[in-house]
Amino acid sequence: MNIINILIALLMFSFLVAFHEFGHFAVAKLCGIKVNKFAIGMGPSIFRFVKGETEYSLRLFPVGGFCAMEGEDDDSDDCRAFRKKPVRHRMAVVVAGPVMNLILGFLIAAFTAGFISDVIKTNTVREFYPGAESSQTGLMVGDEILSMDGMHIFTTSDINYKFANSRDGVFDLVVKRDGKKVALDNVKFYRKYFYYIEAPTEEIPYEHYVTFDTREEYDGDEELKEAETNVDFRVCRVENRNFFSVISYGFRDTLSTARLIWISFIDLVRGQYGLNDLSGPVGIVSAIGTVRAYGLESLMSLIMMISVNLGIFNLLPLPALDGGRMVFLIIEGIRRKPVPPEKEGMVHFVGIACLMVLMVIITVGDISKIFAK
Fold first, then answer.
1. What is Dmax (Cα atoms) for the chain?
2. Are 98 and 318 in contact (CB under 8 A)?
3. Buried b / exposed e across 205-227, counting CB within 10 Å, b at 16+?
4. Which of 16, 91, 124, 285 could be stapled to 144 by a disulfide with Cβ–Cβ 3.0 to 4.6 Å?
5. For residues 192 and 169, what is the distance between their CA atoms, to the nearest angstrom?
6. What span, in angstroms and rounded, lies between the C-alpha atoms of 289 and 204?
7. pLDDT tens figures, 2-29
8. What is the CA radius of gyration of the chain?
9. 247-267 b/e with 16+ CB inside 10 Å = b?
10. CA torsion sign, 118 to 122 to 123 to 127?
């Protein structure tokens, strides 16, 4: 874990959180709510100025930011205080932060597709690899894959997800063929097993190292690890990128990422993943070191995924999160009476404490994974 990865992580989190807080700030201003402070970073101010009624500041530690509104956490007599505004306005302010993270994810995906990525992949089969089983069980060149086992396919990431979570490589597909939807049952995809030497450093992922089709091909001392992949077909690419194709891909990529994150949350609740499968800031720094070896496109994809993740996570109905605040606003809207600020504050305080404990546990796990390598 080198200093460059740490700096990238700090700048990334600061940017994502600042964008999130700007969402709260912008909608609060539009709704006529008084904003006392808007800060990028935390800790003591290194630069600040006052414009109108708001103090803007850049703070020493690049680990987020905040938007402090009048009467947000307590009672205020100011007619422009947060709690004096209609419930619908406060809901708009609360949800604006997560929505801004989702919008940012879309912007990053579209920018990457338009200016960084070499190609934009489609879901249309271009050619089959030798030995492809799917070509013998119904799939044809020119078919656009629309769904796999009932799951709509937005991008090739969805196809890879289905492959990675399949035991037998057999799927019921819906494809577009000659402009018509065609159902293909029990399409089997060829699965190839291979072995690889684990990368000696995080800067050299195994794809850049060396792989073997069988264990017998290698006679060295390093431990060989086993993996599998589906190498059945290649997909077509967008030949002439333009504004509409880039925007379309950015939108689909964002939807795909959001859905996969949501599926992961559900799997976590169901117990299919444990705390050891979660990563915090330390794990993300390590991941940055890995994806940097793949190039700028992979790094931008990681940042996009984290931004979308922040947006969805903050919408969860948990105390201390924007989703938890939405729950209280919904209750107020139904009861026609607000929950006392001190009671709501206590619930959020307990939520923050639980999140802090969880973050410590995850961070300890991240550090133990590093030393275990």
1. 78
2. no
3. beeeeeeeeeeeeeeeeeebeee
4. 124
5. 11
6. 9
7. 788 888 888 888 889 889 999 999 999 9
8. 24
9. eebbebbbbbbbbbbeebeee
10. negative
Q: What does DSSP assign to residue 225? A: E
Among 21, 70, 72, 344, the active-site one is: 21
Digit-coded pLDDT (tens) for 36-61: 999 988 889 999 999 999 999 998 88
Please name the residue that has the structure tokens 């018509």.
180
Q: Which of 167, 151, 1 is nearest to 159 (CA)?
A: 151
Is the sign of the CA dihedral 181, 185, 190, 193 positive or negative?
Answer: positive
| Whole-Å CA distances, 7 to 2, 21, 68, 92, 251 | 9, 21, 27, 33, 29
d(CA 272, CA 267): 5
Give the residues of the chain that fall short of pLDDT 50: 200-210, 212
Half-sphere exposure of residue 177: CA atoms within 13 angstroms, side-chain side: 12
Q: Give the C-alpha distances (Å, rounded to integers) separating 94 from 27, 61, 99, 100, 310.
A: 9, 25, 9, 11, 14
Backbone angles phi, psi at 309, to 5 degrees: -60, -45
Locate 173 and state its tokens: 């597909």
21 is catalytic: yes
Structure tokens at 287: 């991941």
